[in-house]
Specification:
Shape: elongated
Radius of gyration: 18 Å
Number of strands: 2
Mean pLDDT: 90
Strand order of the largest sheet: 1-2
Order of helices and strands: HEHEH
Strand content: 5-15%
Structural class: mainly alpha
Distance between the termini: 18 Å
Number of helices: 3
Length: 119
């Protein structure tokens, strides 16, 4: 029996994607002065939305995808990491992670309450 259900799996995958995004942002910052480095991005939520709209069963197969940002203009040395963009991405990702974690905590609280109620 799957106590958590599909919502638990989805929340877990969203947290994993957010955690990966944090590591990618850290990598971008670490390579800020590396000539030719292209900043990396994590694409998951948008791809997940498209999959859910097309066929909800596909959502369980979705994984985060790390891509190179070829759209952000670069410096003369070819590096396109921008400290301000990365710091904003870091703040946004932290808030997103905290939101997912809060939802998961609430979900687990409801499961706990149901188990205690059944005793």
């Amino acid at each position: 029996m799957d106590i958590g259900g599909p919502n638990m799996d989805l929340l877990s995958r969203l947290l994993d994607a957010s955690s990966l995004r944090g590591r990618v942002i850290q990598g971008n910052l670490a390579n800020m002065n590396t000539p030719g480095f292209k900043r990396k991005l994590v694409d998951f939520e948008q791809r997940l939305k498209v999959a859910l709209d097309k066929n909800p069963r596909l959502a369980s197969e979705m994984t985060p995808e790390v891509t190179s940002d070829m759209l952000t203009p670069g410096n003369p040395d070819g590096n396109n990491v921008n400290m301000e963009l990365e710091m904003n991405a870091m703040r946004e990702n932290r808030l997103t992670y905290e939101t997912y974690a809060t939802i998961l905590q609430s979900h687990l609280g409801m499961i706990d309450a149901a188990i205690r109620e059944g005793r």
